[in-house]
């Protein structure tokens, strides 16, 4: 086993020799992840996934992890930059934040799909969502090997988290308790951290349920064809007060609010497949619409698209 001073020298040399390669690999992965994001959410709300940036692990943290590993395994030999990278495969780290667990699962699956990886190589993956770590930590980790023009390939770890899973790390000051950090977790800290993680996981699950319910509410089955509604001339005047990719919200003269669903806009536009409602309906547009109401909500079905 190397002494700490010897390990420190090797780690410092690794950071001098490989920093440029690590930074270039991080930029390349970020670009690739952004393209994955666009592909997975084509014609959907792109904010459901957010490539949150990258970091190069601090050299002191790398040294601390290596020291811990060599103490656990006295036979381990760390003699080169390659050994440092082989043992610490998350020096390059990138985080993808998701709105809900279903988006997390979607992104995690894409990162393990050989057809999506191209020249990247999947090395390992870990699902810390079910079960979570003993601390309460929840996330999905994927380690990739990235070809490099700067010599040997670069290992990189991609962490896929929901926004609440990421918030847990901030709220519990998780970074303060990692190897090489200043503090050691107390029993109280551990109990509070696990309780907070469980509560946030419950909120994540509720958000998923709400998202599914909202999809059902904003995509009801059409009851009457548009031409038939026009013939009945049963429309009322409504004003658009909010709009987004899946639906718009309109209000009539008496203040009643209703949803303008995507299927109605798609039928009027003549387009097939997924459309974005806010490409056709804008804030403060005035529309003639038929009124449909069921147990789930009130809907305004436009009879014509506005002219822009």
Automatic annotation (TrEMBL):
One of its GO terms (biological process) is guanosine tetraphosphate metabolic process. Residues 54-183 form the RelA/SpoT domain. Signal peptide: none annotated. InterPro entries: GTP_Pyrophosphokinase, NT_sf, RelA_SpoT. SMART domains: RelA_SpoT (SM00954). CDD domains: NT_Rel-Spo_like. This is RelA/SpoT domain protein. The lineage of its organism: Bacteria, Bacillati, Actinomycetota, Actinomycetes, Micrococcales.
């Amino acid at each position: 086993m190397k002494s700490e001073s010897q390990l420190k020298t090797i780690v410092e040399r690794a950071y001098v020799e490989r920093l440029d390669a690590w930074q270039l690999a991080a930029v390349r992965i970020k670009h690739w992840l952004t393209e994955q994001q666009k592909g997975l959410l084509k014609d959907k709300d792109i904010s459901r996934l957010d490539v949150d940036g990258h970091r190069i692990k601090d050299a002191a943290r790398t040294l601390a992890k290596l020291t811990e590993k060599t103490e656990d395994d006295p036979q381990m030999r760390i003699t080169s930059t390659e050994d440092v990278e082989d043992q610490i495969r998350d020096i390059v780290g990138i985080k993808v934040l998701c709105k809900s667990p279903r988006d997390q699962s979607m992104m995690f699956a894409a990162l393990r799909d050989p057809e999506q990886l191209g020249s990247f190589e999947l090395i390992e993956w870990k699902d810390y969502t079910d079960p979570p770590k003993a601390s309460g930590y929840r996330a999905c980790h994927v380690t990739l090997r990235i070809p490099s023009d700067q010599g040997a390939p670069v290992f990189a770890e991609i962490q896929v988290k929901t926004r609440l899973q990421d918030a847990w790390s901030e709220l519990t000051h998780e970074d303060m308790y990692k190897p090489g950090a200043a503090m050691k977790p107390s029993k109280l800290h551990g109990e509070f951290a696990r309780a907070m993680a469980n509560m946030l996981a419950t909120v994540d699950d509720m958000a998923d349920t709400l998202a599914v319910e909202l999809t059902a509410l904003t995509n009801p089955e059409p009851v009457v064809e548009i031409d038939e509604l026009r013939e009945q001339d049963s429309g009322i005047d409504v004003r658009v007060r909010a709009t987004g990719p899946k639906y718009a919200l309109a209000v009539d003269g008496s203040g009643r609010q209703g949803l303008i669903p995507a299927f109605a806009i798609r039928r009027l536009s003549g387009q097939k497949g997924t459309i974005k409602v806010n490409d056709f309906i804008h804030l403060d547009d005035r529309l003639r619409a038929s009124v449909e109401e069921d147990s789930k909500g009130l809907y305004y079905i436009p009879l014509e698209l506005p002219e822009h």
